[in-house]
Specification:
Blueprint (H helix, E strand, L loop, with lengths): L2 H12 L3 E7 L2 E7 L3 E7 L5 E3 L8 H11 L4 E2 L9 H11 L1 H18 L4 H17 L4 H15 L4 H16 L1
Parallel strand pairs: 1-5
Antiparallel strand pairs: 1-2, 2-3, 3-4
Helix pairs in contact: 1-2, 3-4, 4-5, 5-6, 5-7, 6-7
């Protein structure tokens, strides 16, 4: 990988665009928030890599994952199902640390708001954040959710779902 790509990857890492990294033996799996969410696979023993971006690998997304790994930003997987379902490893880890799950899901929700053309992924993540906010009792998250919901209602103004999400947020406010 050339120096320019490595520098771009470092900027991506520092900007927080690496959502998660799973390490299983000498392989890394990651989700990177670029123009769209991209998934990276990297073999640490050979340097061989793949990315779902248009370049297919040897890209800034792979470089960002390398930088994340160098900085200890990864979950260690012990089960071989990580090869097929690295997301499952992430979800299992996050389920045991709700504060971290809330931070990661909020980041993913903000990103989805700019890329999700149907609104479905935003709604799914919004509801997850609602549940995590209740579990963690982080009242300050409600303000962020209000802002996201306002944008959602603007973009998807004809969706009944927007009204349902608004009701769910209102209900959570009364419980917290």
């Amino acid at each position: 990988m050339d120096e320019r790509t490595l520098k771009k990857g470092e900027r991506y890492y520092k900007a927080g665009k690496v959502l998660w990294v799973v390490k299983y033996k000498d392989k890394l799996f990651s989700k990177v928030l670029g123009t769209y969410p991209y998934y990276v696979e990297l073999d640490l023993s050979t340097g061989e890599n793949r990315c779902t971006c248009p370049l297919g690998g040897d890209c800034k997304h792979v470089a960002a994952v390398i930088k994340a790994h160098e900085n200890g930003f990864y979950f260690e997987a012990l089960e071989d199902y990580a090869l097929l379902y690295p997301e499952a490893v992430v979800l299992e880890m996050l389920a045991s640390v709700p504060e971290l799950a809330l931070d990661v899901t909020l980041k993913e929700l903000r990103f989805a708001m700019s890329t999700d053309e149907s609104g479905s992924e935003v709604a799914r993540l919004f509801r997850r954040v609602l549940r995590l906010a209740e579990i963690t009792k982080r009242v300050e998250v409600l303000h962020v959710l209000e802002e996201i919901l306002d944008e959602y209602k603007h973009v998807f103004s004809d969706y009944e779902l927007a009204l349902k999400l608004e009701d769910e947020l209102r209900e959570l406010k009364t419980r917290l």
